[in-house]
Amino acid sequence: MGQRWLLLRAPSSNRVYTAEAAAIGAREADLLGEAFTSRPLDAEPATVAGVEYLALTAPGESEADNRLRTALAYHSSAYALFAEESDSRLLPLALERRVNHPSDLISQLKYVGKTNEQFTQMMVNAAACASDNPSALLDGSLRLLDPVCGRGTTLNVALSLGLSPVGVDIDAKDAEAYRAFLTTWLRNHRYKHTAQAGRLSSNGKVHGQTFQAEFAQDKAAQKAGLSQHLTLHTCDTTLVGTLLPAGKTDVVVADLPYGVQHGARTDKLSRSPLELLRRALPGWRRALRKGGAMALAVNLKTTPHDELYAVCAEAGLKPRWPDRVGEMRHRVDNAIERDVALLVRDDYPAQTTN
Ligand SMILES: C[S@@+](CC[C@H](N)C(=O)[O-])C[C@H]1O[C@@H](n2cnc3c(N)ncnc32)[C@H](O)[C@@H]1O
Questions:
Q1: Which residues line the pocket of ligand 1, CB cutoff 6 A?
Q2: How far is Cα of residue 256 from the mean position of the Cα atoms in its chain?
Q3: Measured between alpha carbons, how far is residue 323 from residues 67, 234, 252, 319 in Å?
Q4: How far is 42 from 56, CA to CA, in rounded Å?
Q5: For 132-177, what is each residue's pLDDT tens digit?
Q6: Per the CB 3.0–4.6 Å rule, which of 9, 139, 169, 221 could disulfide with 216?
């Protein structure tokens, strides 16, 4: 029997999500545990001396414990981690990540319709764990695409984790706001960087704009191979299949338009993203590699489960864990009942399903 570990959760910036975050955080910890130690952690909320933690059972073997500690540093609400000694004293365990950018990278930009940052990071982790190579999350090699990236919450979360993400959104104002934010942020923090904007074209046809940035914290980081890239395409997401190379994306992470702040743009503006998904999913699937995974956040009030999974099946995508569909369901407000669909291609290796 392994030792009990207690994960202290960081306070969330969003009051509504905080109320739901404990249960979702427990599921996220279980996903990380299963992915990095192949064992269930039985994570659950627990109160110790009046303070709320996520309690979990560590494997109790030094190598697996180390892997778990490394993975828990990426948990979306990880603030501090303790091992509970037999005399009930708490021993702090270091939470270390490969890169550490100033936290205002994800908190500074504020706007109506912004996806909660912790929730977004939970989706990135869940997608990595649903793929057949979760370790790519820890070594910076996870190739992430947000095909409806808005003003870039997923992009910034991915950058903060040391990844080099690609974003696509149709809204030119959002893209401009993101470009201005990132270049100012890089300048203010004195990062070594290059950034350029240009036209997005293929086969002699212009589809929109593109913005690319490459950066590293300093010269030493550059030398150590810690440079990161950012790509933002401003165009219709239905073009992803023609613009991005096939089978080169490890995870697709998307907070779909809810029909409240954002509509789904096809020929018309629609409250439900189903028509957009019908048109865009085949391209997103084409970009995804065989063992990759998708995390799609949907509003169940405009996108009922059965309709969502029917559209996914038409595009050759299936739930990663069919018996756990709906587990991350939570209320955002009166108009939004949110859930996260974890999907893989229908040719995803069968032996890795659990
Ligand atoms: C829920 S928002 C994403 C918010 C984002 N996660 C953020 O925090 O900034 C959904 C996004 O879908 C985009 N969208 C809707 N239809 C689209 C289309 N056809 N192609 C690309 N993006 C589209 C909207 O412009 C909006 O930014």
A1: 113-115, 148-154, 168-171, 174, 236-237, 255, 257-258, 262, 264-265, 276
A2: 13
A3: 27, 37, 21, 9
A4: 6
A5: 999 999 999 999 999 999 999 999 999 999 999 999 999 999 999 9
A6: 221
